[in-house]
């Protein structure tokens, strides 16, 4: 779909389309691309192609709805999945919008979110699959049980105990986020922190005000969320070229051999030499064996036989 002389909005939507994980996301991207596409004669073919693709996705979504297939059944788990949980009207959807840049419906009416909302949260070269789950009580716990990280949003202390029964089987790391904390007195805040720390000793407490959080506060929350994933980012490069801008997402403990197997599809024995720049190297361009353990933000270069 790439084309010359496109607006920045078109180009961003085009990139977002490539990384979209749902048809709803793709439709949103296509709407922007159709709106931003030049309307002169030379762009007619491209515009027609965009509209055709938009129509096909609409038809596909309509078939899914008629077949009874829910959005949740169609969600494929990514390498990094964050699920936002909480009771109705605690501010889950507002937080989801702030983290992902989406504009899902937010209302004071209970149970506005009746199916999971799905989008990607951008943080430091990675995209984290983020889901705004329907509020408790919600007996479908498949997303809760499969999540890597859970952001539990509460706005009163009773919700800590009330939410425990929904989290009994999850292995996810949990971040407890108290929303609207500026409505509490200093004494209530101290009690809140003590209660959360006693209930969730291994989990982090994060507190937000009812006002729109500062950019710095949101960035700190994103950083905290990212730190809970047991992954590293590794960038690859070809000899005499710049490193790729999109990292490979690997589990902590991954080695050069892990990357070689992914790139060469099981043919890591074809590697002649591997070089490393970054945290795991003693110096830039260090030559290392395939058993060398990688660290976050390493840059690697392979030369094949």
Can you put this structure into words, describing what you see?
With 305 residues, the chain is an alpha/beta fold. The chain has three domains: 8-69, no CATH class; 73-227, P-loop containing nucleotide triphosphate hydrolases (Rossmann fold, 3-Layer(aba) Sandwich), CATH 3.40.50.300; 231-304, Ubiquitin-like (UB roll) (Roll), CATH 3.10.20.30. It is built from nine helices and eleven strands. It has helices at 8-19, 23-36, 44-67, 92-100, 142-146, 158-163, 186-199, 215-227, 256-264, and strands at 81-86, 117-123, 126-132, 149-154, 173-178, 204-207, 231-237, 248-251, 271-277, 286-287, 298-304. It has a six-stranded mixed beta sheet with strand order 2-3-1-4-5-6, with helices on both faces. Helix 6 links the parallel strand 4 and strand 5. The radius of gyration is 23 Å and the shape is globular.
Strand order of the largest sheet: 2-3-1-4-5-6
What is the N-to-C order of secondary-structure elements (H for helix, E for strand)?
A: HHHEHEEHEHEHEHEEHEEE
CA-to-CA gap between the ends? Answer: 36 Å
Give the number of domains: 3
Helix amount, in percent? 25-40%
Strand content: 15-25%
Largest sheet: 6 strands, mixed
- Rg over CA atoms, rounded to whole Å, is 23 Å
Overall morphology: globular
């Amino acid at each position: 779909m790439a084309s010359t002389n496109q607006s920045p909005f078109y180009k961003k939507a085009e990139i977002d389309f490539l990384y979209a994980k749902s048809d709803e996301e793709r439709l949103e991207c296509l709407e922007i691309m159709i709106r931003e596409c030049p309307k002169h004669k030379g762009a007619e073919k491209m515009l027609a192609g965009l509209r055709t693709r938009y129509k096909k996705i609409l038809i596909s979504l309509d078939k899914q709805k008629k077949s009874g297939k829910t959005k949740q059944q169609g969600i494929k788990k990514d390498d990094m999945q964050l699920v936002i949980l909480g009771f109705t009207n605690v501010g889950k959807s507002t937080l989801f919008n702030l983290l992902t840049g989406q504009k899902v419906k937010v209302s004071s009416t209970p149970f506005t979110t009746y199916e999971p909302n799905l989008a990607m949260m951008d943080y430091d070269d990675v995209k984290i699959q983020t889901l705004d789950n329907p509020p408790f009580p919600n007996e479908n716990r498949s997303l809760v049980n499969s999540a890597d990280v859970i952001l539990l949003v509460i706005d009163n202390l009773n919700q800590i105990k009330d939410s425990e029964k929904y989290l009994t089987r999850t292995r996810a790391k949990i971040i407890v986020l108290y929303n609207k904390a500026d409505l509490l007195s200093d004494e209530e805040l101290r009690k809140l922190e003590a209660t959360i720390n006693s209930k969730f000793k291994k989990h982090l407490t994060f507190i937000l005000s009812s006002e729109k959080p500062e950019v710095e506060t949101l960035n700190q929350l994103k950083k905290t969320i990212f730190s809970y994933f047991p992954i590293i980012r590794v960038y690859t490069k070809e000899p005499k070229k710049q490193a790729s801008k999109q990292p490979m997402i690997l589990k902590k403990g991954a080695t050069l051999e892990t990357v070689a197997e992914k790139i060469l599809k099981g043919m890591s024995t074809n590697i002649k030499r591997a070089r490393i720049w970054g945290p795991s190297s003693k110096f830039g361009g260090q030559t290392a064996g395939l058993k060398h353990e990688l660290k976050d933000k390493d840059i690697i270069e392979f030369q094949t036989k």
